[in-house]
Amino acid sequence: MEAAVAHAPPAPALRRSLALRPTTPAVRPDPKPWQGVVRSARRQSNAVRCEPSRRPEPRLRLRAAQPGGADAAAAAAAAGRRKRLAVFVSGGGSNFRAIHEAALGGAVHGDVVALVTDKPGCGGAEYARSNGIPVLVFPKSKSAPEGISVAQLLDTLRGYSVDFVLLAGYLKLIPAELVQEYPKSILNIHPSLLPAFGGKGFYGSKVHKAVIASGARYSGPTVHFVDEHYDTGKTLAQRVVPVFADDTPELLAARVLHEEHQVYVEAVAALCEDRVVWREDGVPLIRSPINPDVYL
After folding, report:
1. How far apart are CA 221 and CA 47, in angstroms?
2. Residue 1 near residue 36 (C-beta atoms within 8 A)
3. How far is CA 139 from CA 132, 171, 248, in A?
4. How far is CA 59 from CA 6, 12, 63, 249, in A?
5. In 3-state terms, what secondary structure has residue 42?
6. Can you tell me the mean pLDDT for 38-61?
7. What is the model's pTM?
8. Among candidates 73, 135, 109, 146, which has minimal Cα distance to 274?
9. Which domains does the chain have, with CATH numbers?
10. Is 261 tagged catalytic?
11. N or C: which end of the chain has fewer CB within 10 A?
C-alpha cells in the first residue's frame, strides 16, 4: 500500500491467504483527501474467492449426499433428471430470481416448482405469479389469514415432488418438521461470513451495520445447510468482499448482494448435479464440475 504522506515509511502490503483470487472490481466514488491511506485498496477487487490449494495424499474420505440401501436404485434412476426446487422468500426475492433465471438458462439442472412466502404481497411472490410458479402462503398469521399449516405445507411439497428447499430471504424460522422431512436438503443464504454476525435478529441492513461497527475488514455471503436454529447449519460455500474505511451499510450490502447472486446459484447447481459430498466429520464440500478430485 502506498504511503499517504511523503517520506512516511510504507505500510505493509496486504497479505492474502487461501489463494484469494480477485473477481469483479469495485466501483467507488471519487476519493476525499483523507482517503489517500486506502488508495491502493480502492484498486483491489470487489470480491475474492477462497480456494483451498490442492494437496497430495492422503486423500479425503468422502461420501456423496445420496440415499443408500433400498433407496440406491431409486437414487440412481433420479440422478439424471432435473431436480424440483421450492424457494422460500419474505421480500423482493432477488436471489430467487437469480436461481430461477439460471434454471431457465441451463446453469442449474432443476426447476422452481413452488414459491413459499409469509408475505403474499412481496416482490418475490409477484415475480413467481408472473412466471406461472405456484405461491404458497406459510405460516398463517393475522396479516396472512390464508396461510396454511405445517402439515398442509409438507403435504403440498410432497405433492410437487420437491427435492430441495431453498431459503432466499425468508425471515421466519422454519419448523423442525420441515428440517426432518428434508435432511441435508435445505439451503439458506446469509449476508455475512458465518459464524460471525449470524443468529436471531441478524438480517438485512442489521448485519451490515454490525459488520462495519465491529471494524471487520472483510464480509461476504455464506451458503449453508439448514438445521432447527438460525444460521447454525454447516457451511457449504462463501464469498469474501472487503469492508472499506468509509463504507456505509448500503454500499456494503450492494457488494455482498452481488456475490450472493453468484455463489447461491453455484451452490444450487452443485446440489442439483449431485456434486455435494460430505466429509467424515460432517462438513459438506462441493466437487468441481471439471475435475472430480478437486473440491471447491
Report:
1. 11
2. no
3. 22, 12, 34
4. 52, 37, 13, 42
5. helix
6. 47
7. 0.75
8. 109
9. 81-183 (3.40.50.170), 191-220+238-295 (3.40.50.170)
10. no
11. N
CA dist 218 and 195 (Å) reads 13
**Contact between 258 and 281 (Cβ < 8 Å):** no
- Backbone angles phi and psi of 183, in degrees to 5: -65, 135
Give the whole-angstrom CA distance, residue 34 versus residue 14. Answer: 20
Residue type, position 134, single letter: P
| Angstrom distances, CA of residue 106 to CA of 56, 88, 154 | 34, 21, 28
The three three-digit cell numbers of residue 219, written as one number: 464480509
Partners of 117 in beta bridges: 89, 137
Q: How far is CA 174 from the centre of its chain?
A: 17
219 three-class SS: strand
The burial of 175, by beta-carbon neighbours within 10 Å (0-12 exposed, 13-18 middle, 19 or more buried), is given as: middle
Residue 221, preceding peptide bond in cis (omega within 30° of 0) = no
3-state DSSP call for residue 20? coil
pLDDT in tens, 55-87: 444 455 555 554 333 344 455 445 589 999 999
**Residue 55: what residue type?**
R
Q: What is the pLDDT of residues 222-275, one digit of tens each?
A: 999 999 999 999 999 999 999 999 999 999 999 999 999 999 999 999 999 999
Q: Which residues neighbour 91 within 8 Å (Cβ) at sequence distance 6 or greater?
A: 119, 122, 123, 124, 169, 171
Q: Which amino acid is at 248?
A: T
- What's the one-letter identity of residue 291? N
For residue 116, the SS3 value is strand
Could you identify the residue written with the cell 445447510? 225
Q: Is 12 exposed, middle or buried (0-12, 13-18, 19+ CB in 10 A)?
A: exposed
Report the distance separating Cα 167 and Cα 186, nearest Å.
Answer: 7
CA distance 80 to 165: 19
